[in-house]
Amino acid sequence: MKDLTQGSIPGHLLRMAAPIAIGMLFQMLYVLIDLYFVAQLGDAAVAGVGTAGNVQFILMAVTQVLGVGTMALIAQAAGRKDQHDANLVFNQSLLLGLICAALTLIGGYGFADLYIGTLGADAATIAAGNDYLYGFLPGMALQFALVGMGSALRGTGIAKPTMVVQVLTVILNALLAPVFIAGWLTGKPLGVFGAGLASTLSVAAGVAMMIWYFVRLEHYVHFDRTQFAPQLPVWKRILAIGLPPGGEFALIFVYMGVIYWLIRDFGAAAQAGFGIGSRVMQAIFLPAMAIAFATAPVAGQNVGAGIAARVRETFRSAAAIGAVIMLALTLLCQWAPEALVRPFTHEADVIAYAVEFLTVISWNFIASGLIFSASGMFQALGNTIPAFVSSATRIVTFVIPAIWMSQQSWFELRHLWWLSVATLALQAVISFVLLRREFDRRLPLLQPRTAAANADA
User: Fold this and answer.
1) How far is Cα 126 from Cα 112, in angstroms, rounded to an integer?
2) Which of 219, 223, 248, 387 keeps 20 to 30 A from 131, CA to CA?
3) Which segments of 39-122 does DSSP mark as H helices, in order?
4) pTM
């Protein structure tokens, strides 16, 4: 465990964010690698992978429930120097992850046809989406184990092992993708299904590596059979913190689903352009998201230790660093959007749609950075409901106007992107106001732990 209740807060944020960002970047490369090789199969294949990839937001919603709850409780326990509680939370989160993995496989294979059929622009897109999802669903289920173990390490202030595993699994995916998609070496191309299968095998290898690390090297939290029996009070603690962030990702699934539905009349090229543009946007978001991911354990340990001043300083530092990063990324998307898109397609119409998306949507990057930092603070404080409330406002401010606009004769895709920019700016203001209120309510109640108390623990 690394003690984050002492030392430079910006230093802690940057030291944790660096391996987190690298790990997240390589994790995002799963999708980008698939897109690169799948793009050789045509627009319908790209649109199908993008549509099926949206299912990952539902998966991320559920993994966030476990990951955020686990990380926040372990960080607070580490701040209190309560190793027994940290280990209990870890083992119970793994049990919950096994249950969720089984439900993912049942629900995924049971409802894939219905979901892809609803959003696909044409028969070829629907077929490609189903093939990709069938190949990747086992990998999606295995991600619960990866998230559980990675979140536990993050709560203790350790990020490098997770980063190393993510890098190695993405390298493996890059090697397997052309083998399965294009049939390199085997002479048996599996197409879009092969893209999903390559990712599944890579995730399985990552799970094996993380298990090895915990068995051989990790000591603060570890596998304990005696703590693996269901304990509902611990489940409630994890879910109380984790459910709202999971709801946030579920809302992203709704937003993305609405967008794919609204733009399907523009054809497969529009869906492909949006799919590529949104994946590129997610990739370049990673540095700011990494700062937010580092914010939660740094602030969480200080909440557990009862040091209110360091909690406030964590947010100020995270917001400032995030704003600088997001400003640089905004300028990048304004100056060279085509360079970010062209590696994934040579189709002129697809490039045009993706470039238009990035050029407009990049104006909300700074607001997004503030939202990320605020969400990390809500996790650290142990009350994630305000972050969910902030995200839910976009059901009213974005989804309803977007559906209305799509029915107008003058509707163009750029109207949808500008609406997103405006509503995300409003969400950033709401998040900041709610966080200020949470600080005023909770920080005065924190009691610093004395040296004697630490010794007793």
Assistant:
1) 10
2) 248
3) 43-53, 55-80, 83-119
4) 0.75
